[in-house]
Amino acid sequence: MSGRSCKGPFKILVLPGDGIGPEIIKEAVKVLKALGEKKGITFNFQYGLIGGAAIDETGVPLPEETVELGKQSDAILLGAVGGPKWDNLPPEIRPELGGLLKIRKVFDLYANLRPVMFFPELKNASPLKPEIIEGVDILMVRELTGGLYFGEKKRFTTEQGEQAVIDTLIYTEKEVERVVRLGFELAQKRRGKLTLVDKANVLESSRFWREITEEIKKEYPDVELSYMYVDNCAMQLIRNPRQFDVIVTENMFGDILTDEGAVLAGSIGLLPSASLNGKFGLYEPIHGSAPDIAGQNKANPLATILSAGMMLRYSLDCPEEALLIEKAVKAVLQKGYRTGDILEPGTALVTCEEMGDLVAEEILGGVYDEGLPL
Ligand code: NAD
């Protein structure tokens, strides 16, 4: 694979955000720089404002300048937004709604990818028994810009004078098609299994998703497709999570199931995510800005470092380099280094900064053969 174009120059928009955001982002950038040095890749990092930091400086949570910088970039790497300082602002100018949800909407980031990875070194951190969690490797794909969360909402009074409410679930054919197609493509590159999660026994929208999925399936004969009701999926994820490869689902079901997926791995400090529109994507850890530990050099930067790994894989066409980051993280964990959130007896406590140094050193040390599976 030496003829690949994983050399850059890549333009990365870095949005540290609030709370622990700047601390964890610093370590992810450090790791990318180490990778650049090791592999001769040019990364051009540009920094922008989002969230509370943007409100403090410009009065708005997503300045136009940030959007412009994003448009000129190959990908966006984000820390986290929000914190008590901005909690009492009107919702539309709060960091979460006016910053994070808005940037997802502006860039039409319709597919949210969350891998659920099993780290043998952390098997005791999971609430599930080791024999159930062992070997789990799931990629959850959640539709992110449609469905119930974005449909019309209203309150009204019935003819009988009773208060009532409507939330509208709406999906267009195109919205379903693009995310389901992505699911097939991702399954093709993994173990070839795709599960569409829905509630087709009750919901018309689910039957619509199934019809479209059946059509697309004809183009991917090598992918084994199955359907599962969302209630069953919630149960199967804790009974037998190894059965899943790629899961695709609509926005609200995905919201709930991806959080359930997150606990399988044990710590939210470890889980990365990607929000994609084709090849362009925004990469961020799944956790928030952790104001309780901000500024203390205690945060776990691994979810953000692994998010940078996803960026290499999905936006920059650098799958081997993504693997290198994942292997380096694994090696550091194998050597027994832990931030406070995943500390166990017999392991060594390190700071956020030390964790970043350790991963960068593993990469620069070059002890891994390219292409070796994890
Ligand atoms: P949180 O994820 O920030 O924190 C939950 C708990 O997990 C805290 O105890 C925190 O210390 C711990 N934690 C989180 N990330 C960690 C890490 N990397 N290392 C070690 N420990 C970690 O969730 P919250 O407390 O509900 O929210 C805090 C703020 O973050 C709120 O303002 C919320 O709106 C915002 N938020 C932002 C995002 C985002 O930017 N994507 C996501 C969720 C919440």
Walkthrough of the structure:
The protein is an alpha/beta fold and 374 residues long. It folds into two domains: 9-112 and 274-368, Isopropylmalate Dehydrogenase (3-Layer(aba) Sandwich); 126-265, Isopropylmalate Dehydrogenase (3-Layer(aba) Sandwich). Helix content is 40%, strand content 20%. The chain has helices spanning 21-39, 52-58, 64-71, 95-106, 130-133, 173-189, 204-217, 230-239, 251-265, 302-314, 319-334, 352-365; strands at residues 10-17, 43-47, 75-80, 111-117, 137-143, 153-157, 163-167, 193-198, 224-229, 246-249, 272-277, 280-285, 337-338, 348-349. The strands form three sheets. The protein has a ten-stranded mixed β-sheet, with helices on both faces. Strands 6-7 form a two-stranded antiparallel sheet. A two-stranded parallel ribbon has the order 13-14. Strand 11 and strand 12 form a beta hairpin. Helix 10 (302-314) runs antiparallel to helix 11. The radius of gyration is 21 Å and the shape is globular. The chain starts with 9 loop residues before the first strand and ends in a 9-residue tail after the last helix. The structure holds nicotinamide-adenine-dinucleotide.
